[in-house]
Amino acid sequence: MSETLLTVIKERRSVRKYDPSFKIEREEILEMLEAATMAPSTSNLQPWEFIVFLNPEERKDLRAIAYNQEQIETATAVIAVLGDKEFYKNIDPVYDSMSAAGYINDASKEVLVGNAKKTYPYAPEEVRKNLATFDAGLTAMQFMLIAKERGYATGPMGGFDKVKFSERFNVSDRYFPIVLITLGKENAPAYQTTRLAIKDKVRFI
């Protein structure tokens, strides 16, 4: 691990106080999200979707859905990370893209596509949701580290009414909300935290 990456990891904090006047361009948010989606995923099927909240009026409603947490309105943006329950619908686009890029040959593609189509469409929905939640979580964490490396603050938020969120923001049945991530410029120091001793959390066998 490089010293730079270790520093980013150690210095990242979940921020709740933001400078409401600070702006980040849409193009840069897209760049960070694109880099975040380089995270690994189940069979590379990328079971995630994002809604980026910039509009103040929309964020008023989002704040109410998120139990009136003020950072929803003071952060530069709020990124909602959604999971894709039907990520098997990405099988052909993903493997067609890999083939076009020259990363797999026709024989390998046929095997990979065949195996995926035999497995994921028939998996129970709960299994698919668990896989999507795990994969989207990897992307969310990667996004927060990328933002920190660029000098921005973030804060993950699991505390919001997910049913009301889906209703208010017209989330299709294919997707389900997992976490909100606030993004912006820190306006007050975040709490310092500690971790339990790693020796108490690891068992070598």
From TrEMBL:
Keywords: Oxidoreductase
Keyword Oxidoreductase part of the UniProt annotation: yes
Keyword flag rRNA-binding: no
Top-level taxon in the UniProt lineage: Bacteria
Record-linked Gene3D superfamilies: NADH Oxidase (3.40.109.10)
Residue span, Nitroreductase domain: 9-185
Annotated Pfam families: Nitroreductase
Family according to the record: Belongs to the nitroreductase family.
PANTHER family documented for this protein: NAD(P)H NITROREDUCTASE YDGI-RELATED (PTHR43673), NAD(P)H NITROREDUCTASE YODC-RELATED (PTHR43673:SF3)
Protein's name according to its UniProt entry: NAD(P)H nitroreductase YodC
Gene source species: Neobacillus kokaensis
